[in-house]
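From the methods appendix. Each design record in this collection lists the tokenized structure first, followed by the designed amino acid sequence. Records were kept in a plain field format so they could be parsed without special tools. The example shown here is representative of the layout used throughout.

RECORD:
FOLD TOKENS (153 positions):
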């Protein structure tokens, strides 16, 4: 699957999950920075701004993020939904994470990685991998498939 299609697939999976929960989920235009889905519960007026990151079946390194993802956003009710595609005929798994919590995690993880060896150089790439990194695995457990974190239900 091509990279652009992988991202779009993740966005549609998230919108479908939200719709099943009775949440109105609207995909934004592709030039909207930091938000892929606007989600609203029409019954209680609560909303969430969602950035979707999708990992393909062939990806074994985790979600690739950037240095901008480790900066706390000024967007209210801002969340990341990390989508782990499982392959054709399989439902994906999701990590529904408040943006500020993910930003702090990847900032600290990168700082620790740099301190691990004097030969390591700063890059703009950051990773979230709750499958291989023990600290991130523990972090991810409370967010795995946890749609209630959005505060919409």
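DESIGN:
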């Amino acid at each position: 699957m091509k990279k652009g299609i992988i991202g779009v697939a993740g966005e549609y999976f998230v919108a479908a999950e939200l719709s099943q929960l009775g949440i109105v989920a609207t995909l934004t235009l592709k030039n909207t920075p930091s938000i892929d889905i606007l989600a609203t519960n029409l019954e209680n007026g609560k909303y969430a701004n969602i950035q979707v990151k999708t990992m393909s079946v062939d990806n074994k390194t985790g979600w690739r993020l950037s240095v901008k993802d480790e900066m706390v956003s000024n967007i209210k009710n801002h969340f990341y939904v990390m989508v782990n595609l499982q392959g054709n005929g399989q439902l994906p798994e999701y990590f529904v994470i408040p943006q500020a919590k993910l930003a702090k995690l990847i900032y600290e993880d990168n700082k620790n990685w740099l301190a691990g060896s004097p030969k390591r150089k700063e890059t703009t790439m950051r990773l979230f991998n709750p499958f291989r990194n023990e600290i991130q695995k523990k972090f991810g457990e409370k967010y795995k498939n946890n749609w209630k974190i959005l505060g919409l239900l």
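APPENDIX NOTE: The first helix runs from residue 3 to 20.
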